[in-house]
């Protein structure tokens, strides 16, 4: 009997029993961003950690203000301020062990500085004297990255390599809400979940990709929900609550270190300043919206909590502010010195050994420089 | 003196052997890509590596070229030497941002503190009857990107030697594998230690006196065949196999053209904006007073790679090369 003759009596063979690969329920983020400050959970927060977060928040805010001022003086080509987002930056830096790696995006200078990189070296890219000022291996901080989300697969690869070598190293990668639309975001999360790589992704959802609001960026319930599709947990946290961000990241880092695989954390925050000094934010958002977020300022949130617990006396406050002023004064003074550049450096780092073609061009530039110098005498 | 029995081996076998030897010699060498594990790659170049070295050393990745190369960047940052396979030329395009924005420039942007020893294996070129996106010659994109080395073997021995050199290089190397030559055989002794060529040296494959054919990769055997055919017409053609497009061996090429006074550049990729224009310019700059005729190019047409039933019209063949050679009897005013 042919298949055609079977018509009527024919019953298709059902597909083999289907099972979900991963139970989605534990991966789903909470309905509300997780908070610590101003809630009952705050009583559990370690006073020493709160003090460290506070000192770094104040320092970070001062850094943002100083760097923005330097753009007005022409000392920085551009500065994407993270004012309003300092809690994410600081928590990301403080949650890591020395052996761990941080993969920043271009707005994450504060996280880089909080990790221990020299404040001037962290600005090299934005100042324009070279692309990366610091040694990435020294502080285990990848170069500040301007293409969006391309640093995420690097974090996955590094974490994977560390695990292959038997090192309990975790990579923490930072990305903005706009970056979650890029293909590299998808590929990085997918690789991380498949390989169970010890990596944590922190999305700083600050509301806008330059001028495009989140509603035009994604139709997902939240950015944290995207985790479920990859088979990793998604966590939603109040990005202005430094204690909450730290706690959620600490959980994710611990999980990764213990072999539990990657986590996607969405920190809901807001970019108080414009995208960069070159942007006019009044064209795409209302002042009233900015004001509501100003009332949810990360430094004030923490101050209120610390006051309530008697952790912040006037002496501490003054010491912290003075240290921040000192950092700013030093940054200002050093940035006001003209960068010392050697044009021949252009050829030094293209290949381990310059190609014959580069050697010819190197000789050309050397001759031009010598002619310039003779002309100057 | 002992004679070594030379057995025929294919280029694909030599590449496999190079990967195996590199992995055995250096535990930091890792192979990753789509289908490189159990299948051994669609061209079987990674055959047996997963079995011999384990899936952590020869890893089947998710199907995502940017992810493959992007994670290789992170692996290299942590001290590994990744060798990634792009499966087919046109499949590598999603990885171009990682290649251009990170792989090629990480050494430079970090002032030499973070070199990336990554080898990107790209099977390239036509002549195998592949459908769209399986036959592109994408070398112009790679050679236009500073920070990358770009090499391509044409012989079984070079396939081994150049791949070992690429993997050993502290800089990223785009290793272009002419797929049409995967099954080409040479006498080659896989038992003996094989010579590892330094990257950046061209070689004269066939000495000649009347003109130089400058070529590389899949066009090398075509040029050798053309040189044989040209003898009947009284032409004694020299064939230079570049082997490396970046760095470029100006010396070997210029020395040959100064001897012969005439040159034709032959490659499969398009002519406009292709490698031939760069090579012709370099030859002209160095050999102008030795040239008896303009440097000519025989290349693929400037069109998207054609469907397989038409590709023979596109690929530079012996006749088109011989026509160009005939045009080298150039006289002013022609």
List keywords for this structure.
heterodimer; A: about 375 residues; alpha/beta; Rossmann fold; 2 domains; 5-stranded parallel beta sheet; two-stranded antiparallel sheet; 13 helices; 7 strands; globular; B: about 325 residues; 7-stranded mixed beta sheet; 5-stranded mixed beta sheet
Detailed description of the structure:
Chain B: It is an enzyme of class 1 (oxidoreductase). The complex is a heterodimer of chains A (about 375) and B (about 325). Chain A has two domains: about 45-340, Thiamin diphosphate (ThDP)-binding fold, Pyr/PP domains (Rossmann fold), CATH 3.40.50; about 340-375. Chain A has helices at about 45-70, 85-95, 110-115, 125, 135-140, 150-165, 185-195, 225-230, 240-255, 285-295, 300-310, 315-335, 355-375; strands spanning about 100-105, 170-175, 200-205, 210, 210-215, 235-240, 265-270. In chain A, helix 1 packs across helix 2, helix 1 runs parallel beside helix 12 and helix 6 (about 150-165) packs parallel to helix 7. In chain A, strand 6, helix 9 and strand 7 form a beta-alpha-beta unit. The model of chain A has no long low-confidence stretch (mean pLDDT about 95). Chain A has 13 helices and seven strands. In chain B, about 35% of the residues lie in helices and about 20% in strands. In chain B, the strands form three sheets. In chain B, strands 3-2-4-5-7-6-12 form a seven-stranded mixed beta sheet, with helices on both faces. In chain B, about 55% of the residues are buried. Classes of the chains: A alpha/beta (about 375), B alpha/beta (about 325). Chains A and B meet through helix 6 and helix 7 of A and helix 3, helix 4 and helix 5 of B.
Blueprint of the fold:
The complex is a heterodimer of chains A (377) and B (334).
Chain A: H1 47-72, H2 86-94, E1 101-103, H3 109-114, H4 124-127, H5 136-139, H6 151-164, E2 171-176, H7 183-195, E3 199-205, E4 208-209, E5 212-213, H8 226-230, E6 234-238, H9 242-257, E7 263-268, H10 287-294, H11 298-308, H12 314-335, H13 356-376
Parallel strand pairs in A: 1-2, 2-3, 3-7, 6-7
Antiparallel strand pairs in A: 4-5
Helix pairs in contact in A: 1-2, 1-11, 1-12, 2-9, 6-7
Chain B: E1 7-10, H1 11-25, E2 29-33, H2 49-53, E3 58-60, H3 65-77, E4 81-85, H4 96-103, H5 106-109, E5 119-124, H6 139-143, E6 149-151, H7 156-168, E7 173-178, E8 185-188, E9 203-206, E10 211-215, H8 219-231, E11 237-241, E12 244-246, H9 250-260, E13 263-270, H10 275-287, E14 296-300, H11 311-314, H12 318-327
Parallel strand pairs in B: 2-3, 2-4, 4-5, 5-7, 6-7, 10-11, 10-13, 13-14
Antiparallel strand pairs in B: 1-8, 6-12, 9-11
Helix pairs in contact in B: 1-7, 3-4, 8-12, 9-10
Cofactor (chain A): thiamine diphosphate
Organism (chain A): Streptomyces achromogenes
Protein name (chain A): 2-oxoisovalerate dehydrogenase E1 component alpha subunit
């Amino acid at each position: 009997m042919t298949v055609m003759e079977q018509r009527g009596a024919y019953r298709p063979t059902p597909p083999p029993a289907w099972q979900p690969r991963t139970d989605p329920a534990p991966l789903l983020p909470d309905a509300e961003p997780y908070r610590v400050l101003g809630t009952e959970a705050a009583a559990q927060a370690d006073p020493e950690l709160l003090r460290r977060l506070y000192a770094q928040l104040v320092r970070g805010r001062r850094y943002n203000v100083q760097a923005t001022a330097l753009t007005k003086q022409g000392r920085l080509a551009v500065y994407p301020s993270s004012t309003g987002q300092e809690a994410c930056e600081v928590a990301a830096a403080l949650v890591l062990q020395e052996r761990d790696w941080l993969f920043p995006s271009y707005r994450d200078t504060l996280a880089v500085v909080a990790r221990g990189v020299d404040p001037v070296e962290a600005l090299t890219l934005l100042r324009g004297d070279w692309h990366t000022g610091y040694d990435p291996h020294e502080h285990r901080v990848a170069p500040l990255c301007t293409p969006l989300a391309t640093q995420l697969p690097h974090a996955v690869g590094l974490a994977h390599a560390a695990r292959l070598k038997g090192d309990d190293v975790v990579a923490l990668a930072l990305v903005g809400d706009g970056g979650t639309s890029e293909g590299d975001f998808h590929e990085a999360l997918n690789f991380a979940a498949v390989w169970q790589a010890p990596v944590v992704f922190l999305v700083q959802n600050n509301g806008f990709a330059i001028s495009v609001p989140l509603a035009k960026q994604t139709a997902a319930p939240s950015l944290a929900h995207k985790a479920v599709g990859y088979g990793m947990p998604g966590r939603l946290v109040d990005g202005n609550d430094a204690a909450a961000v730290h706690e959620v990241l600490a959980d994710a880092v611990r999980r990764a270190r213990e072999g539990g695989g990657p986590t996607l954390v969405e920190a809901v925050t807001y970019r108080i300043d414009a995208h960069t000094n070159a942007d006019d934010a009044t064209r795409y958002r209302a002042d009233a919206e900015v004001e509501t977020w100003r009332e949810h300022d990360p430094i004030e949130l923490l101050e209120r909590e610390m006051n309530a617990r008697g952790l912040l006396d006037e002496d501490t406050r003054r010491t912290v502010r003075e240290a921040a002023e000192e950092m700013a004064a030093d940054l200002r003074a050093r940035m006001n010195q003209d960068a010392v550049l050697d044009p021949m450096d252009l050829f030094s780092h293209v290949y381990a050994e310059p190609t014959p073609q580069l050697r010819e061009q190197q000789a050309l530039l050397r001759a031009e420089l010598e002619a310039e110098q003779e002309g100057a005498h | 003196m002992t004679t070594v029995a030379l057995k025929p081996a294919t280029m694909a076998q030599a590449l496999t052997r190079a990967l195996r030897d590199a992995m055995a010699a250096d535990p930091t060498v890792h192979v990753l890509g789509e289908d490189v594990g159990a299948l051994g790659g669609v061209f079987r170049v990674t055959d047996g590596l997963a079995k011999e070295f384990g899936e952590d050393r020869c890893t089947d990745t998710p199907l995502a070229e940017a992810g493959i190369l992007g994670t290789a960047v992170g692996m290299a940052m942590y001290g590994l030497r990744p060798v990634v396979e792009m499966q087919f030329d046109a499949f590598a395009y999603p990885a171009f941002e990682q290649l251009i924005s990170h792989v090629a420039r990480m050494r430079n942007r970090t002032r030499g503190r973070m070199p990336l020893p990554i080898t990107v294996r790209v099977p390239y070129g036509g002549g195998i009857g592949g459908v769209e996106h399986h036959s592109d010659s994408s070398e112009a994109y790679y050679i236009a990107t500073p920070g990358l080395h770009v090499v391509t073997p044409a012989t079984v021995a070079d396939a081994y030697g150049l791949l070992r050199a690429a993997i050993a290089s502290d800089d990223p190397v785009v290793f272009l594998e002419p797929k049409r030559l995967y099954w080409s055989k040479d006498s080659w002794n896989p038992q003996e230690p094989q010579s590892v060529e330094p990257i950046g040296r061209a070689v004269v494959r066939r000495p000649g006196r009347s003109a130089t054919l400058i070529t590389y990769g899949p066009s090398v055997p075509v040029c050798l065949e053309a040189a044989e055919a040209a003898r009947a017409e009284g032409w004694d053609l020299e064939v230079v196999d570049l082997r490396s497009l970046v760095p470029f061996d100006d010396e070997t090429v210029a020395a040959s053209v100064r001897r012969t006074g005439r040159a034709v550049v032959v490659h499969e990729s398009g002519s406009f904006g292709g490698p031939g224009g760069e090579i012709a310019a370099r030859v002209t700059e160095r050999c102008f007073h030795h040239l008896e005729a303009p440097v000519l190019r025989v290349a693929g047409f400037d069109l998207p790679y054609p469907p397989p039933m038409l590709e023979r019209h596109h690929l530079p063949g012996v006749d088109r090369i011989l026509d160009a050679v005939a045009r080298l009897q150039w006289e002013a005013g022609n």
